[in-house]
Amino acid sequence: MPNQATVQDIIDDLRLEPLAVCNGYFRETWRDEHATVIYWLLPESHRAALHAAAHPEVFTYHSGSPLRITLLHPEGRVEEVFLGPDLEAGHRPHIVVPAGVWQAAHTTGDHTLSSVIVAPPFTPDIVTLADADALSARYPEHADTIRALC
């Protein structure tokens, strides 16, 4: 049976650092004038609270447990998607989150290791953290979900 890498092993091997904006750990691996690519590790002790990015993001699965991503679209539709390896279970190996869509994420197990591609390039100012009161007023039918994800 192969050894499972621990969260600390992954942090050390990939030289990841804490990610303040969306939680977890990251390392930018590529940047040019068009896009950025990061490794993003989300351990079970972390979650990415509800936020929106001004640019589209593409999440790609690498290892660990599936990542549950909850999306709140501008028209008020809530969608749950799973980034992961099991196509038969409905997981997807990559997920595109359009610009302006509210999103929150947590791993379904010990951790999820993914990459995130952002185009145009990521800068911290493209992220807006959700205001639970304001979003609940805008989408009252989803107020409980919004408050749970903030």
From TrEMBL:
Domain of life of the native organism: Bacteria
Concerning InterPro entries, the annotation shows:
Cupin_DUF985 (IPR009327), RmlC-like_jellyroll (IPR014710), RmlC_Cupin_sf (IPR011051), YML079W-like (IPR039935)
Q: Which Pfam families match?
A: Cupin_5
> Where is each DUF985 domain found?
8-126
Q: Which residues form a coiled coil?
A: none
Name of protein: DUF985 domain-containing protein
Q: What is the lineage of its organism?
A: Bacteria, Bacillati, Actinomycetota, Actinomycetes, Pseudonocardiales
